[in-house]
Amino acid sequence: MVMKVCCHSNMVMKVWACSSSLQSFFPLIRDSNRSLDIFDEKIHPLTREKVPEDYYSVDPEHKLIYRFVRTLFSSAQLTAECAIVTLVYLERLLTYAEMDICPCNWKRIVLGAILLASKVWDDQAVWNVDYCQILKDITVEDMNEMERHFLELLQFNINVPASVYAKYYFDLRSLADDNNLNFPLEPLDNQRATKLEAISRLCEDRYKDLGKVTIRRSLSADNLVGVRTTHAVLS
């Protein structure tokens, strides 16, 4: 019971720090909204609710970002470490694709980053269809297509060296310290660092192989047979 409470506390704190870091990606003065249609929520809505006309101009509050990220992490039972890998992929996407994170695309970009991070890091894999049970108005075809674009924009670079993980970890811990909050998660030990690097390299190789033979078909990490064997079923 104590272990469950501790793990939950780690997850909540890491999601808080992750959402705070995400908010920092929104520029104080926006002079551009570089995005792609696949991430535009008006073109590919996550819910049946009508997207407001000013959806592209109003930055989300921190509590909205936190609520969205926490819902995904809690429902999919993701680990606290997965939040760090999520940030790695998200910032890598913005850099590689020369995109801006903005009100019209942040939810789908975050969803795509969490989707990949959960498959690379978490022992209990959560597949695309499982996220459709969390976000009930999105189709698995849309999830697969978004994931394919995300991977291509990352140039299939999903490797996370221990040094990169450590940088993001200490950045988040500094953010928590600046807000006088306890940051309970410990840095990666050697065993976990080796595991992260090995799994992310394996997934990257598998993604690249799949990309060569599925150029005109939907590419999804759900096809990575042998990398993950446990299929999480969410009620």
- Structural class by secondary-structure content: mainly alpha
Order of helices and strands: HHHHHHHH
| Shape descriptor | globular
Q: How would you sum up the major sheet?
A: none
- Write down the CATH class: Mainly Alpha
The percentage helix is: 55-70%
Labels describing this entry:
single chain, 235 residues, mainly alpha, Cyclin A, domain 1, 8 helices, disordered N terminus, disordered C terminus, Cyclin_Y, cyclin, Cyclin-like_dom, Cyclin-like_sf
Brief summary:
Belongs to the cyclin family. Cyclin Y subfamily. This protein is mostly helical.
Characterization of the model:
This protein has 235 residues and is mainly α. The protein has one domain (2-223): Cyclin A, domain 1 (Orthogonal Bundle), CATH 1.10.472. It is built from eight helices and no strands. Helix 1 (2-24) runs parallel beside helix 3 (81-96). Residues 1-7 and 213-235 have low confidence and may be disordered. Belongs to the cyclin family. Cyclin Y subfamily. Keywords: Cyclin.
